[in-house]
């Protein structure tokens, strides 16, 4: 177990988002109370947003442009709410994942080639976190800017909120307008952070696991590199067997961790895959076909860009997990273990190598509800579905305008 504390931009951002949404690891009673407050605030924000969107659809039914905008918002609220509820229900397993990552991945005690790989992994994670946080904050900011832009030059009685509300109060007048505007913006920000927190953490952990498999491959490949220089091959075989057992334990630990990751995240991944194409389709409609203000159109421009970045990076990390876990088999097979003497340790090495290769043939992966493994092919399939749905909506809207 590693106890040294390590941190960088991606790790600090991940820890902050987990604390903000109420699914972080706690170490004392004070942190437990703050965690409960954060979770209550997260749930309250999502329930409030669901109420706003559902009531707005009910009162605006028949106005397709407005309903499309509200449905997009409804899906964007429902998805992170479902994910955070799954993680809360499976909080014991989720905390085990957090503890394992903190103790075994995020530490500064890497050496030589492992340090180089860890540095490369860290740069990739930092780049992803900065890009993801920038895109989601830009998209959220336009939700607040749009009503301010539309309200400019109008009377106070004509002011609109970021999201339409149906209450029997003068919502456009002071102080009701300012209070409701602040409540909506705070709820919107919390929902955005919830949307980012679970997916951001999963992507970062995926990348770290991918690089952990690369480190394991390097260790296995270098077990036998000096075999020709050894004069006492029997003693060297004993040392190789000791080092191989350490690699096997590391491999077993990574496989077990991937299984835990799959058990916790399989339903959130399924929900994201199911909703992604529909959400992207509606966003594309709002960009290209809907008659909406420029600021509203920019909301969906940045949402589409952010969603596209997310699905590509996430499927890339899942694809890398499949590839790197499979390459352990090739790294094991390509070693010079066949030239070792047939001592007791030599026989055990051959037996363990065969078992390790058989275990590596079945790759570690994350699946969508157990239906199919997620890889880069998943992103192309989802984008293809998005274009199909968008073409269908465009043709339907064109026929409606012609009639």
Automatic annotation (TrEMBL):
<feature type="transmembrane region" description="Helical">
    <location>
        <begin position="37"/>
        <end position="54"/>
    </location>
</feature>
<dbReference type="Pfam" id="PF02949">
    <property type="entry name" value="7tm_6"/>
</dbReference>
<keyword id="KW-0675">Receptor</keyword>
<keyword id="KW-0552">Olfaction</keyword>
<protein>
    <recommendedName>
        <fullName>Odorant receptor</fullName>
    </recommendedName>
</protein>
<keyword id="KW-0716">Sensory transduction</keyword>
<feature type="transmembrane region" description="Helical">
    <location>
        <begin position="297"/>
        <end position="317"/>
    </location>
</feature>
<keyword id="KW-0472">Membrane</keyword>
<feature type="transmembrane region" description="Helical">
    <location>
        <begin position="127"/>
        <end position="150"/>
    </location>
</feature>
<keyword id="KW-1133">Transmembrane helix</keyword>
<keyword id="KW-1003">Cell membrane</keyword>
<keyword id="KW-0812">Transmembrane</keyword>
<keyword id="KW-0807">Transducer</keyword>
<dbReference type="GO" id="GO:0004984">
    <property type="term" value="F:olfactory receptor activity"/>
</dbReference>
<dbReference type="GO" id="GO:0007165">
    <property type="term" value="P:signal transduction"/>
</dbReference>
<comment type="similarity">
    <text>Belongs to the insect chemoreceptor superfamily. Heteromeric odorant receptor channel (TC 1.A.69) family.</text>
</comment>
<feature type="transmembrane region" description="Helical">
    <location>
        <begin position="66"/>
        <end position="90"/>
    </location>
</feature>
<dbReference type="GO" id="GO:0005549">
    <property type="term" value="F:odorant binding"/>
</dbReference>
<dbReference type="GO" id="GO:0005886">
    <property type="term" value="C:plasma membrane"/>
</dbReference>
<feature type="transmembrane region" description="Helical">
    <location>
        <begin position="264"/>
        <end position="285"/>
    </location>
</feature>
<dbReference type="InterPro" id="IPR004117">
    <property type="entry name" value="7tm6_olfct_rcpt"/>
</dbReference>
């Amino acid at each position: 177990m590693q106890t040294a504390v390590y941190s960088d931009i991606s790790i600090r951002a991940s820890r902050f988002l987990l604390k903000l949404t109420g699914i972080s690891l706690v170490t004392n009673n004070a942190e437990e109370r703050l965690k409960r407050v954060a979770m209550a605030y997260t749930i309250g924000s999502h329930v409030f947003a669901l109420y706003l969107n559902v009531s707005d659809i009910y009162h605006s039914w028949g106005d397709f442009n407005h309903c499309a905008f509200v449905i997009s918002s409804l899906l964007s609220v429902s998805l992170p709410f479902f994910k955070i509820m799954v993680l809360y229900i499976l909080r014991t397993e989720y905390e085990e994942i957090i503890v394992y990552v903190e103790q075994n991945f995020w530490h500064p005690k890497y050496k030589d080639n492992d340090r180089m790989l860890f540095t490369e992994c860290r740069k990739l994670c930092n780049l992803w976190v900065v890009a993801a946080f920038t895109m989601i904050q830009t998209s959220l900011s336009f939700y607040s800017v749009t009503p301010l832009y539309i309200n400019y030059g109008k009377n106070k009685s004509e002011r609109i909120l970021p999201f339409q509300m149906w209450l029997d109060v003068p919502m456009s007048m002071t102080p009701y307008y300012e209070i409701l505007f602040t409540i909506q913006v705070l709820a919107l920000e919390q929902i955005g952070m919830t949307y980012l927190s679970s997916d951001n953490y999963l992507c970062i952990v995926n990348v770290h696991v991918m690089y952990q498999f690369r480190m394991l491959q390097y260790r296995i490949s270098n077990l036998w590199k000096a075999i020709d220089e050894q004069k006492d091959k029997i003693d060297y075989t004993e040392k190789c067997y000791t080092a191989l057992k350490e690699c096997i334990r590391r491999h077993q630990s990574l496989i077990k961790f991937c299984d835990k990751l799959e058990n916790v995240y399989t339903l959130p991944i399924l929900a994201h895959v199911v909703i992604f194409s529909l959400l992207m389709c509606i966003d594309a409609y709002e960009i290209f076909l809907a008659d909406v203000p420029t600021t509203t159109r920019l909301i969906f421009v940045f949402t589409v860009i952010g969603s596209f970045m997310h699905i590509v990076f996430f499927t890339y990390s899942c694809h890398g997990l499949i590839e790197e876990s499979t390459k352990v088999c090739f790294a094991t097979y390509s070693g010079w273990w066949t030239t070792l003497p047939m001592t007791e340790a030599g026989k055990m090495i051959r037996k363990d190598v065969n078992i390790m290769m058989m275990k590596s043939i079945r790759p570690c992966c994350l699946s969508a509800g157990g239906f199919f493994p997620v890889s880069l092919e998943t992103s192309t399939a989802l984008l293809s579905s998005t274009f199909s749905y968008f073409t269908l909506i465009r043709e339907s809207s064109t026929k409606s305008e012609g009639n």
